[in-house]
Amino acid sequence: MNPDIIPNPEIFHHHTPVQLRFNDVDVLGHMNNTVYFSLYDTAKAEYFSTVQGKPIDWKNIDIVVANVNCAYISPIFFGEKIEVLTTCMSISEKSFKLLQMIRKADSLEPKSICETIMVSFDPHTQTVCEMPEVWKKQLCDFEKRDLIKKK
To answer: N vs C: which end of the chain shows fewer Cβ within 10 Å?
Structure first.
């Protein structure tokens, strides 16, 4: 992931406003690097609920994170209004790629970019499996474009 390439905000169809807590800030006065992943996870959960049109049943989860990469662009300070933007970029046979961006809400200034590979997962066998067609359809329908990689 190249942090110099800032994605166009128009590609994101899901926005999650987030609020920093005092304990999210480190001794330097900015958000601790580990908190970014928590905010990205919160936004992912909201994105999935929106895409599926219902709350996620966390006891029957069928996708897991396989890889996550985060680029820090500029610090986030306590009191800044920020939001997390989320979109699905592509779908493969057993996985899909999410792109997320934390940005300053009132100026649209990007603060961080995150790419996550999610894999379809069978919790009973504890193995990666082919992605259900319903997931593929819901993601494509929500993003209003064909995301499926052609072989």
So the answer is: C
What digits encode the pLDDT tens for the residues 69-122?
999 999 999 999 999 999 999 999 999 999 999 999 988 889 999 999 999 999
CA–CA gap between residue 12 and residue 85 (Å, rounded): 6
86 sits in which H/E element: strand 82-91
Rounded to 5 degrees, φ, ψ at 138 are -65, -40
**Cα separation of 60 and 48, whole Å?**
14
Burial of 47-65, coded b for 16+ CB within 10 Å and e otherwise, reads: bbeebeeeebeeeeebbee
Question: Could you tell me the pTM of the whole model?
Answer: 0.93
Which of 61, 36, 67 has the alpha carbon at shortest distance from 49? 61
